Amino acid sequence: MNMMQVTRDGQLQGETLTLAYGERVIVDRLTVTIPDRKITVIVGPNACGKSTLLRALARLLKPKLGSVLLDGQEIQRLPTREVAKRLGLLPQTPIAPEGILVADLVARGRTPHQSAFQQWSAADETAVLDALEATEILDLADRRIDELSGGQRQRVWIAMALAQQTQLLLLDEPTTFLDLKHQIEVLNLVRRLNRNEGRTLVLVLHDLNLACRYADHIVAMRDGQIVAEGPPKEIITAANMAAVFGLACDVIADPMSGTPLVIPALETE
Amino acid sequence: MSVAAIQGRVWRTPRFSLRVDERLIGVNLLLLTVLAGASLWSISAGDFPIALGDVLKTLLGRGEGANNFIIFNVRLPRLLTGIGTGIALGIAGAMFQSLARNPLASPDIIGFDSGAALGAVALVILLGASGTLVALGAVAGGLATALVVFALSWRAGGVMPLRLVLIGIGVGFFAYAGVEFLMTRSDIFEAAAAQAWLTGSLNARLWSHVWIIGATLVVLVPVALLLQPALDRIELGDDLAAALGVRVNAARLAAGFVGVLLAALSVASAGPLPFVALVSAPIARRMTRAPSIVLVTSGLVGALVVTAGDLGGRLVFAPIQLPVGVFTAVFGAPYLLWLLATQIRKGAM
């Protein structure tokens, strides 16, 4: 796989963020720093504010209080397009227009780099090709997206985000609705992007064991707060799992990777 | 190596690149050719038939007395008003269907046309207005209706497409009831004039109608085309569009405004022509197979639908002349039924 040229370095921080939809406060005075060139995975129970935090970090939600800093600049003051050159986000449920071809959808990722005078530059073409190659869907390029399987479709969306060529890539539950094999494929891809290209990745995942296996840094959230953050081995402990999920469990070492493996306790009478 | 699946031809210098979708250009040229043919036929046909050769001669400025009079004072304004309203409706339909991500959300279905009609009829009947003032009434009525529809369908930070469609249909009936009420209060001559216009007719169009719709298109079509890339991205979802660098709310507001103005001013020029906005964009998308809302093609399809509808309305039951609005309804209504049936089957309703 060839090295992709990434537009710019991106460092991402949230400072005392209070996030709300209307009057409903989801995240309360949260401070977080996304480690550069690492894979960060956000975990936590449903409705704990993971996606909300991700949206705020990507400038899609304006914080009530506090600020998000991208390369030290307040993200709300940066133009949308400028942010889009440095930071990409794949939402949980993107919508594919009816009948669109894979290549055309991936090409949409080039939007922030295009204008009326620069509609399809050589760089656009290379970026789309590289993204199709990295996600191993080059042979699907001329297929309609509605003909693809769930796993293939997810790779198309990731390819689109890759074509944007941002240093920072935020993926909201990229493995949901995929079977285990396809989940592993997507996460292997994520790891390659990080190891080979030095991209910073932030993922929201539900599967703790996969999170442990792929994350360099875990952020565990509950009720809009960070309960614990750090390397998986330090964070995924029985005590923390009880605090974050209210889950009684044992944590052992994954026999394959040595990373923590959460074994839920049997129901006690 | 290039990505073969991406349609089109590319011209490129280091600081400039242009991508042209050949199929799109081909479809547009085909539509223009058919539209030119339909236009010539439309000019030549009528109670006083003019041979095609004479039509061409007259258009080139070498015509004779009667032909000159009929073509330049009657048939050309009629034709151009039809083409202009068709373009406006085709583009407005494409914009709203894209914004709402729902093929039912065209201005004729969601009440904007009825609102524009109410505004126009109110000015005609209450103030005895004519010409440009009627156009202003239509714009005010269309914008007010759009505001009401959007306000009523707004829930928790967004507009649900299906809610928008259903509320739009309801508000449309309400506006239409307003029109009916005004009609009963007016005297018979005003009512007759308003009625002829309300059925959506190109009868007795003057150059003033051509100017209204022409100026509308000159101002608004470039704005619509500038918004097209943003609308294409918004179809992927608001969050993704924003992540791609699109200013979603600004683009959506601008597109909504332009769409309402296009629909309202087409109503001001030719009355409400039902179903033109509804059918044009889906036809255009199917023909071009482009990954885009293809506004230009939608406009051309709209122009062709109105021109053909007017021609059909005059020829099929000759010597009886059906207003173009009746003719577009006859063909548009079955499409609406089919659309409703498939939407229900897909569980979208």
Q: How would you describe this structure in keywords?
A:
heterodimer; A: alpha/beta; 32% helix; 26% strand; globular; disordered N terminus; B: 349 residues; two-stranded antiparallel sheet; 13 helices
Explain what you see:
- The complex is a heterodimer of chains A (269) and B (349).
- With 269 residues, chain A is of the alpha/beta class.
- Chain A has nine helices and twelve strands.
- In chain A, the strands form three sheets. A six-stranded mixed beta sheet of chain A has the order 6-7-8-3-9-10, sandwiched between helices.
- In chain A, helix 4 (122-134) runs antiparallel to helix 5.
- Chain A is globular and about 60 Å long.
- Residues 1-8 of chain A have low confidence and may be disordered.
- Chain B is mostly helical and 349 residues long.
- In chain B, 73% of the residues lie in helices and 4% in strands.
- Chain B has 13 helices and four strands.
- Chain B has helices at residues 22-44, 52-59, 65-100, 112-127, 132-153, 161-185, 188-198, 207-234, 238-243, 248-270, 276-288, 295-315, 324-345, and strands at residues 9-13, 16-20, 154-155, 158-159.
- In chain B, the strands form two sheets. Chain B has a two-stranded antiparallel ribbon with strand order 1-2. Chain B has a two-stranded antiparallel ribbon with strand order 3-4.
- In chain B, a hairpin with a 2-residue loop joins strand 3 and strand 4.
- In chain B, helix 1 crosses helix 2 (52-59) and helix 5 packs across helix 10.
- Chain B starts with 8 loop residues before the first strand and ends with a helix.
- The mean pLDDT of chain B is 88.
- The chains are: A alpha/beta (269), B mainly alpha (349).
- Chain A binds chain B through residues 21-22, 55, 58-60, 80-85, 87-91, 93-97, 99-105, 107-109, 111-112, 114, 117-122, 124-125, 128-129, 132, 141-142, 164, and chain B through 1-7, 10, 12, 15-19, 101, 156-157, 229, 232-233, 235-237, 239-240, 242-247, 289, 291.
